[in-house]
């Protein structure tokens, strides 16, 4: 299984058709193929060798898409970085995987000198609009200057990409994804979520996140058309759907709600939409009904996945959103196993399969599962039990094989589709001089699904405002990880063993609703 | 990639829905799962160990389907045998792969004693209707007597199945198919040919052929419903399509023609059909138009594959059967690369890719390609060039990446979807005492696509009738390999190097038509 096979197929079978539409720029698959091969030549000329890591810190763009494939064609490992991270977080990751080259765009050119200095990165590339800084190579100049590089990409178990996620210990972890992981994930996405060469897909997630990159890789395999927005908002999305006749989007339910109920929704022709995949949380019946009325030719599929399983592992087909001859609606479920994926509910931490209906931890196995974390053998060992990946998500499987996610085993918050590990936020808050004790929990949020909430005990005679605590965190963490609310207590509830009882802190927030994570 | 993952998924997510309808017998996926696990227990009790081969010689049935999965669950290698072979041919194959157990049904019970004696097979199972012979175990008795065996199946590069095809040297070759080959082929089929859990598929090809077994494995992965006919004919097919509301068939174009133009076609309700995949040869416009008129809700997709590539490697989507904004009709083509499959046209025998439009041999690479032939390292080496499989099919790729198959590089005839190697037939004819020289070629056939035609030079003063030659062959070869016509000549045309010029023999037969193989 060769990751590059997907792009080669698109070039071979869809050469004269649009590959990517990025603002006013449209490139065909033949153009993308040629540019990728030349850029790969440029990377090799810069000293990139098979197995080297190349980092990308940029907003979504046609150039970004090319860079991902050029890195693979050169036999190197792409590492797309979270654009919402602080410089601290980015620098820590760069030191972890030591890239040979750093690629940035105009949004991150100012961070580049400090990041390169701190991580000792000799070479950098500037892509997209804006002048190329003196100490960098230009993306276009590299393409112009180099002949197409014959393919030297890897295959099978060779490492193809690293995807960094937050870590339970506060240190972010690089999930290793192989050619086999990514190739199977792409064909599985096509099979489960119905991409084709007729799909015109509007990207709404950053390419640093698998919710952005796996549809990118799958749609390339299918030979469809990528539509990019530099910055995603509801009105820009609607304008682009109308103008580019977009057929397929991937949204969180909040975004579907916004699209349907936006005051200017009726001004746009959204009739080209055929399928919306949604994730991160179940969809309410009221939002679904409003969406069906507004978009009568569109269907909705729920997808669930995680970075360690190369995205898609469960999906909820359209017809199971409703009662039918086959049985009741499964809308409250997250989905059932995608193709080739083994799913099991077991006691937390792993073990034998539990009977249907009994809650436990969701375990996964199959060709999409990561071989582990970069440079972190202990964390890797802890993530698996007897060959099964421990997802950290809790739930049960019903009699029809649909998984209902009800809780999270790991102490993690999913806010706006991003994973936030409580420990990482707690570490930052603890560093504030006024803080004696703290606990970070998820509370419900209409907008984000869950929001980061801090419960703090101050040192005797000391205190700080919410704004001070938040600013203190913001200097250390990405914005999405910082608390959105603060609660001050005299003491935290402790178990007999002296452990903080987070369930007690969460209880009043979740009293009238079931915690629905997904 | 675990082959067994597909059945486990079907049991987990479609347990109470019909898995297989075989005449009056219907079994759910839960029942099939339970019976497979118990039968696997029976096989292990009979001494089957991981890696052992288990042969099946039977007509399609629900029991056959179970046996294929039970063998895999026990960690063994299934070898479904061609039901049209002579006892000679079957015995030769059995001696090649030395099975631990032979499974037969009522149609082959009489052959079993001789086959077991000649190949030294200690154990045998009888499945399906009819009394169980004293020296065999019964399929049902094994299921009843044994507890479900915990899964001990292999994965990845472990051998899962052997599929025997005719050989260029006259010795049939066992194509080794791994868990990875079969798993990728199944998900690729779902992605390319649109199987789902709503698919009700009428099997028309024997399970010993990949045109029978790969849809079997793919539909199991999708959790759909298999519909079986013990013996396939047009009227039985139409009756079953109507009765079982079949949605999907795999046919050769001749069969589509029969279905549409059959005198009793109008008596049957075929309105449930949504997709017909066809193969072995392109479809004529007249047949396609008649089929579209008769089946207005049905679409047609062409598929091409070969055993060494685990079936599907090229497909021709429905919309490319017609002229459109995208360009002219591609109906004359065989198709373009399936997902994850690398396709290249190179000089016969392999090498660098030829320019578009230039004819050469079709080469394939990717996760579906066999690691080689069982016990035949020389034939394996000859089948590959620089990591690419040599298909033996000649053709060109057009500017849009569609492959047009125009010739066959190997001296092979494809008759009714079966590969016939000329050499094998010539060897049989040479053994006739009256024959001095002979050549076997393909001639066009309305019914079979191609037919086996023998050109013979008799010894001075000797001769034989067509019937005598055919009967002589029939004693040695499967019926489909025996000549359907005979031409007697004084001498065969020879090249300067003394090689028979088959092109000259073929020319008059193919004068007014392009040889269209696929």
From TrEMBL, chains A, B:
<dbReference type="InterPro" id="IPR045851">
    <property type="entry name" value="AMP-bd_C_sf"/>
</dbReference>
<dbReference type="GO" id="GO:0016878">
    <property type="term" value="F:acid-thiol ligase activity"/>
</dbReference>
<dbReference type="InterPro" id="IPR042099">
    <property type="entry name" value="ANL_N_sf"/>
</dbReference>
<protein>
    <recommendedName>
        <fullName>3-methylmercaptopropionyl-CoA ligase</fullName>
        <ecNumber>6.2.1.44</ecNumber>
    </recommendedName>
</protein>
<feature type="domain" description="AMP-dependent synthetase/ligase">
    <location>
        <begin position="7"/>
        <end position="374"/>
    </location>
</feature>
<keyword id="KW-0436">Ligase</keyword>
<dbReference type="Pfam" id="PF00501">
    <property type="entry name" value="AMP-binding"/>
</dbReference>
<comment type="similarity">
    <text>Belongs to the ATP-dependent AMP-binding enzyme family.</text>
</comment>
<dbReference type="Pfam" id="PF13193">
    <property type="entry name" value="AMP-binding_C"/>
</dbReference>
<dbReference type="InterPro" id="IPR050237">
    <property type="entry name" value="ATP-dep_AMP-bd_enzyme"/>
</dbReference>
<feature type="domain" description="AMP-binding enzyme C-terminal">
    <location>
        <begin position="424"/>
        <end position="499"/>
    </location>
</feature>
<dbReference type="InterPro" id="IPR000873">
    <property type="entry name" value="AMP-dep_synth/lig_dom"/>
</dbReference>
<dbReference type="InterPro" id="IPR020845">
    <property type="entry name" value="AMP-binding_CS"/>
</dbReference>
<dbReference type="InterPro" id="IPR025110">
    <property type="entry name" value="AMP-bd_C"/>
</dbReference>
